[in-house]
Specification:
heterodimer; A: 177 residues; alpha/beta; five-stranded mixed sheet; three-stranded mixed sheet; 33% helix; 18% strand; globular; B: 448 residues; five-stranded parallel sheet
């Protein structure tokens, strides 16, 4: 049976960028993608003190039940994500696991007081999606400039890298060039 | 250092903090573990080696500051970073005063924590590098060069050059004072391991119990007086060279322990149960007849074969007498510099005495003789009178020569040594210049 990477928009209308995200992920990993649905309850993940959403709590719901044809699952949200010790995260993934979640919240120019640039936001989303999914394939952060697995803690870092994995990272997960 | 070589221990009573930091650092490829309280953390510090410890200040039971003190007792080189949800100047100052590398207030920006850990890794790398460099400096400060142009020493150096490029285990044989450690150092310095330390241990200088502790190290409390964890020489030699001097002097138990380390490249510290992996080259040295010791059963045959993969024998000084003037001058120059004395030469008579002595203590003895001579030297040249050592020239085995033949050979030798300086040669022979000219005529001696 063919396996897919499931892409799950979380309370998000995604039609305008979904196709672009799918092709970006398929190009990076050579695995077919499929749009999926999950009943994610964001209220469970909400922290009223921080006014942010726990990425770990969302991830737990995403991987709660797994269809037979699912290789990986990526949730896409627009809420501001955090993990307890950090002030924010762009996303979270299970290292060598099946699930990951990314948020477009801090990928939008408007978050930084700049004029909106939808194309730029989608580019960033594809890069972050490939980055987090790379972790689910067991990849650590990569030191090579330009590799999608290069660590990014600021949005400017995301703009510096590509949507693809470097040769070494591709080799590490058994992908040919 | 690759991220996988760096161990980070996270100590926090909040599971969510532990988990999120664990995941964050794992993504960077670091080796990570967590502890929910100080007691567990201390156990993990005993069981494994950690480079960086992130610890929460406020924890039930032992707090972070006290835990930091205990960590520094176990291993003062561990880099500690304290975390708190409430920043107070007092606790941060206190933590830093007690050796914390840095102090963070939760929650922290992802960039800040990544930057902090990179700096902590760099700090840890510098500590390790500094320790290794200090060890290398000590080696360099104590080291001499291998001096000599005789065929015997050239052969030794050729063997050194051959074996240095390999990772073979080497056994160096030779009498006491022949420079076995120098040869070991020459092998190490020309090998691919040269940027890591060569750790020397004189196996003959310790009792068996002490040698065990020196080699394997010990955990805190392993025995009375073991106040802190201590790395052993085996650990210190990781990636470098372990030089076991006087290997013939170790007892049966140590022979067995050593054999196990050589075979498995792993060991445990005394009082510990964690297997520590090491990667080093072994060079051993002995002045004992190990083959005989094996026959007598006092040295394990399997260990002997493990150690004696490539053998280098250093000839005693008396078998390479032609190197004596060169070595004596080397020490002369060295001591002249260190003692700031204007001594620049060694008189032919002195060289003659040095050449005729049988040097049971080999180069070490020659070095000591030259050092003492330099202390007593009054002029710019070392004279026989400056040699204060109580030795007598070796009676050389002689062939059945006539008295005339012996005299002829002796005069020829002295003339050669003084480069045919008639006055100097006459002074050494204690005859007049005229008598010397007559002898030259009589024996038809020629220069060159």
């Amino acid at each position: 049976m063919m396996s897919y990477i499931y892409l799950v928009p979380i309370h998000l209308r995604a039609a305008d960028w979904m196709e672009r995200l799918q092709s970006g992920i398929e190009r990076a990993f050579g695995v077919r993608t499929k749009r999926g649905d999950r009943p994610i309850d964001l209220a469970i993940a909400y922290d009223p003190v921080r006014k942010q959403y726990s990425s770990s709590a969302i991830l737990l719901q995403l991987i709660d039940s797994v269809p037979d044809d699912m290789m990986k699952i990526l949730g896409i949200t627009d809420v501001d994500l955090f993990v307890p010790v950090l002030s924010y995260v762009f996303g979270e993934a299970q290292l060598d696991g099946i699930g990951a979640v990314v948020s477009v919240h801090r990928l939008k120019n408007s978050f930084y007081g700049l004029s909106e640039d939808n194309e730029r936001m989608v580019e960033r989303l594809v890069k972050e999606a490939v980055h987090e999914l790379g972790h689910t394939f067991g990849l650590f952060h990569c030191n090579r400039v330009g590799c999608a697995l290069n660590a990014s803690t600021y949005v400017e870092d995301i703009d510096q890298k590509s949507e693809l994995l470097c040769v070494e990272c591709r080799k590490a997960i058994g992908l040919g060039w | 250092m690759k991220p996988a070589d760096i161990g980070i221990l996270i100590v926090d009573d909040e599971a969510s903090v532990r988990d999120s930091l664990y995941k964050w650092f794992r993504m960077d490829g670091y080796r990570v573990d967590t502890a929910e309280e100080a007691r567990v953390a201390l156990q993990k510090l005993q069981d494994d080696s950690w480079d960086i410890v992130l610890l929460d200040i406020k924890m039930p039971g032992m707090d972070g500051l006290e835990l930091q003190r205990r960590i520094k007792e176990i291993d003062k080189e561990i880099v500690t970073i304290v975390m708190t949800a409430f920043a107070t100047v007092d606790t941060s100052v206190q933590a830093m005063k007690e050796g914390a590398f840095d102090y963070i207030v939760k929650p922290i920006d992802p960039d800040e924590i990544s930057h902090l850990i990179r700096n902590a890794v760099q700090q840890r790398r510098l500590i390790t590098e500094n320790r290794n460099l200090r060890l290398q400096l000590e080696e360099i400060a104590c080291s001499d060069e291998i001096i000599g142009e005789s065929d015997a020493i050239r052969q030794v150096m050729a063997k050194v050059a051959t074996v240095a490029q390999t990772d073979s285990t080497v056994m160096i044989r030779g009498e006491s004072g022949t420079g076995k450690e120098l040869v070991a150092m020459a092998i190490h310095s020309n090998s691919n391991r040269k940027y890591f330390p060569m750790i020397t241990i004189n196996c003959g200088a310790y009792t068996e119990g002490l040698l065990e502790s020196e080699l394997f190290g010990h955990e805190k409390g392993a025995f009375t007086g073991a106040m802190y964890r201590r790395r052993g020489k085996l650990e210190m030699a990781d990636k470098g060279t372990l030089f076991l001097d006087e290997i013939g002097n170790i007892g049966r138990k140590m022979q067995m322990d050593l054999l196990r380390v050589i075979e498995t490249r792993q060991f445990t510290r005394l009082g510990g149960d964690k297997q520590i992996h090491v990667d080093f080259r072994i060079i051993s040295a002995t002045n004992r007849d190990l083959e005989q010791a094996v026959k007598e059963g006092s040295f394990r045959e399997d260990l002997y074969y493990r150690l004696n993969v490539f053998s280098i024998t250093i000839p005693p000084l008396r078998e390479r007498r032609s190197d004596i003037p060169l070595i004596a001058r080397f020490f002369l120059n060295r001591f002249a510099r260190s003692m700031n004395k204007p001594v620049t030469d060694i008189s032919p008579e002195t060289l003659d005495v040095l050449m005729r002595y049988h040097w049971p203590g080999n180069i070490r003895e020659l070095r000591n003789v030259m050092e003492r001579a330099m202390v007593g030297a009054r002029g710019t040249c070392i004279e026989v009178g400056d040699l204060s050592f109580p030795f007598h020239p070796t009676p050389e085995p002689v062939e059945d020569l006539s008295l005339d033949a012996i005299e002829r050979n002796h005069i020829q030798n002295i003339l050669n040594r003084t480069n045919w300086n008639i006055s100097q040669a006459a002074a050494i022979l204690k005859i007049s210049r005229l008598t010397l000219y007559n002898k030259i005529d009589k024996y038809q001696l020629k220069k060159g």
